[in-house]
Structures are given as C-alpha cells and as structure tokens.
Amino acid sequence: MSRGSDDHSASVSGSGPWVAPGEPKEDGNPSADASKHCDDGTPETPSLGAAASPPPAELAAKAAPENDDEPQNTLTKKFTGAEWSALRKFRPMLPATFAEAFPDNPGASSTPYILWGVTIDPTEPKNAKVSVILMKFLRARNLNPDEAKSMLISTLRWRQSFDVEGAMKEQYPEEIFGKLGKIYGKDKQGHPVVYNLYGAIKDTSVVFDDIQRFLRWRVAFMERSIALLDFETVDQAVQIHDYEGVGLFSRTENSKRAASEATSIFQGHYPELLTRKFFVNVPSFMTWIFWLFKPLLSSATLDKMAVVGSGPRTIGTALLPIIDEHELPKRYGGSADGF
C-alpha cells in the first residue's frame, strides 16, 4: 500500500497456487516450527500439575490492558495477557522498524504507513485496528517482538519492491485469471470465503508461461479478499481449495516454480489471515502428500486445515457447519447459485 493515504482497496487471501494439500502456506508460521500453540495462537505452556486454575474474573483482569485508555474493539478484547504484554513491547519499536524498512526516507520513523487499509502511525500506534494488525506479526513469531519486528520490516520492504499497489491496478486476462479464483459469501462468523479453483484452466501453460504475471495476479487477488476484512470484528478469511479437474500431469516446471514463489510470499508477508482452510475434490494420488507433510506442520496450522472428499454431499457435510446453506454454492453442498 502507499504511504500516507488511507486506501481500503488493498487486501487479501490465498495460498500458494497448485500446492498439494498439507503443504505449509500462509499461516505465517515456519513450516517446521516445533513449538505448539493454543487455539488463540499463543504459545502452549507445559502443565504444572495439580495447581488450581484462577477464577474467570482473575483471568480476565490479567488479560486486560494495564490502563483503561487502551483503545478496544471486538478483536482486541480477545487478546490474552501474554499478547498484551508482547504488544506493549512491540509498539515502541515501530519508529525504528519503519526507519529500517525505508532507509532512503529520512522521515520514515515518523511517517504513517497504510497496511491492508489500516493507517499505522509509528509515533501514535495506540489504535485498536493497529493492535490487531501488529498482533498478527507477533502471533506468527510466537509473541517474540524482535522476530515480529524483523518480519514486519521484511514485509514492508517486499511490498515496496513488489509494488503491491501497482499489481492491484493492473489488468489481467479475465478468460484466464477470472476462472482461477472467486470470492463468494461469508461463513457464519462473517469471514469472507475465498475459492481457489486449481482445475478451472486445463491448459496450464497459459497461466504459468509468465510466472511474474501470475504472481502479480495472485497477490492482487489476495489483497482483494483482505479488503473485505474490517479488523474490528473480522480479520481472517476462509479458504476453499478445489482440486476438481487436476490431473496427474497438471503440474509443470513453471507451475512448480510459481507455487514455490507464491508460498514464500504468503508465508512471509501475510501472517494470520486465515481462520480455516479446506481442500476439496482432492485426487487420490495427491492425498498422500498431506500425510507426508503433516508431521512438519505446527498444531496451530493443522487445526485450521481439513482435507475433504469429493461431491456436493460429502463436501457439504464438512462446510455446512460453518457456512450457511444460502451462502454456499450448490456444487459444494449448499443452495446458492454461486459462480
């Protein structure tokens, strides 16, 4: 996003294209991270045995901000005590973070930056939406402020060099890229639902002949889905990866390179933007890859993923508990006309 203008057009979804089920993608966590996470994304601590749990009121008090002028929204109210502690250490690092990210700008340490439609002012970072954004980088790095700072610096530098705003403005052939990704409906919690249709184009050469064009479209598509997040009540999306039509020989050297580069982009620069990820219509010859990669994935990543069978009835059994029937296309077991 550009610096200094409140542009809500940017935002996003997406995992690496043509990546087999189970391959680690943009959850923002290292693929072989050995540390475990609780459902809320905080590091899981060992049990201390028979010690009694504090009463709920005491837990709430510990999780609350240290002072009552902390801006709050629905999402920040879910932060744990450990997360608030990490956030308070991270926020004072923002001037130095921006200065390192933009060394050619002498005023970078005090210049606001727009990320995913949210203005981050390094000199006045106490803002509920900003807290939600910063928490994504913290959670992706196990609440380590120094590592979160490095990740944010890397992301800001990448967005500038990749020219994300320019990618959003580019025109991509609708007959090709319009078929590969769809954003349709919401789940029962208000999360937008993003569909990646890997078998929609039979001639993959037209998609991957120009790898950089594909990557720029993929990032723009991701940004479009993020634009649907308000970072007040909703800050994540649901992804459905549909492999219908994908054959044994669908992958080419170019598609593999594109998948690798896209996976690196989304892992490194789009942390904690997915709430659930479903792989549907997965060919039998690909399911073994999920089990191959499963031991390498963190428990937090595995909790978000599900490999589902084929056909509307089977898929609907998995999706209807989280997506209302009228929001789910018929091809996936719902009643909506869809796309």
Automatic annotation (TrEMBL):
<dbReference type="GO" id="GO:0032541">
    <property type="term" value="C:cortical endoplasmic reticulum"/>
</dbReference>
<keyword id="KW-0472">Membrane</keyword>
<dbReference type="InterPro" id="IPR042938">
    <property type="entry name" value="Sfh5"/>
</dbReference>
<dbReference type="InterPro" id="IPR011074">
    <property type="entry name" value="CRAL/TRIO_N_dom"/>
</dbReference>
<feature type="domain" description="CRAL-TRIO">
    <location>
        <begin position="164"/>
        <end position="339"/>
    </location>
</feature>
<keyword id="KW-0349">Heme</keyword>
<keyword id="KW-0813">Transport</keyword>
<comment type="similarity">
    <text>Belongs to the SFH5 family.</text>
</comment>
<dbReference type="Pfam" id="PF00650">
    <property type="entry name" value="CRAL_TRIO"/>
</dbReference>
<dbReference type="InterPro" id="IPR001251">
    <property type="entry name" value="CRAL-TRIO_dom"/>
</dbReference>
<dbReference type="GO" id="GO:0005886">
    <property type="term" value="C:plasma membrane"/>
</dbReference>
<dbReference type="Pfam" id="PF03765">
    <property type="entry name" value="CRAL_TRIO_N"/>
</dbReference>
<keyword id="KW-0256">Endoplasmic reticulum</keyword>
<keyword id="KW-0408">Iron</keyword>
<dbReference type="GO" id="GO:0008526">
    <property type="term" value="F:phosphatidylinositol transfer activity"/>
</dbReference>
<dbReference type="InterPro" id="IPR036273">
    <property type="entry name" value="CRAL/TRIO_N_dom_sf"/>
</dbReference>
<dbReference type="GO" id="GO:0046872">
    <property type="term" value="F:metal ion binding"/>
</dbReference>
<keyword id="KW-0479">Metal-binding</keyword>
<feature type="compositionally biased region" description="Basic and acidic residues">
    <location>
        <begin position="23"/>
        <end position="40"/>
    </location>
</feature>
<feature type="compositionally biased region" description="Low complexity">
    <location>
        <begin position="46"/>
        <end position="64"/>
    </location>
</feature>
<dbReference type="GO" id="GO:0043001">
    <property type="term" value="P:Golgi to plasma membrane protein transport"/>
</dbReference>
<dbReference type="GO" id="GO:0005829">
    <property type="term" value="C:cytosol"/>
</dbReference>
<keyword id="KW-0445">Lipid transport</keyword>
<dbReference type="GO" id="GO:0005789">
    <property type="term" value="C:endoplasmic reticulum membrane"/>
</dbReference>
<feature type="region of interest" description="Disordered">
    <location>
        <begin position="1"/>
        <end position="74"/>
    </location>
</feature>
<keyword id="KW-0963">Cytoplasm</keyword>
<dbReference type="InterPro" id="IPR036865">
    <property type="entry name" value="CRAL-TRIO_dom_sf"/>
</dbReference>
<keyword id="KW-0492">Microsome</keyword>
<protein>
    <recommendedName>
        <fullName>Phosphatidylinositol transfer protein SFH5</fullName>
    </recommendedName>
</protein>
<dbReference type="GO" id="GO:0017157">
    <property type="term" value="P:regulation of exocytosis"/>
</dbReference>
<comment type="function">
    <text>Non-classical phosphatidylinositol (PtdIns) transfer protein (PITP), which exhibits PtdIns-binding/transfer activity in the absence of detectable PtdCho-binding/transfer activity. Regulates PtdIns(4,5)P2 homeostasis at the plasma membrane. Heme-binding protein that may play a role in organic oxidant-induced stress responses.</text>
</comment>
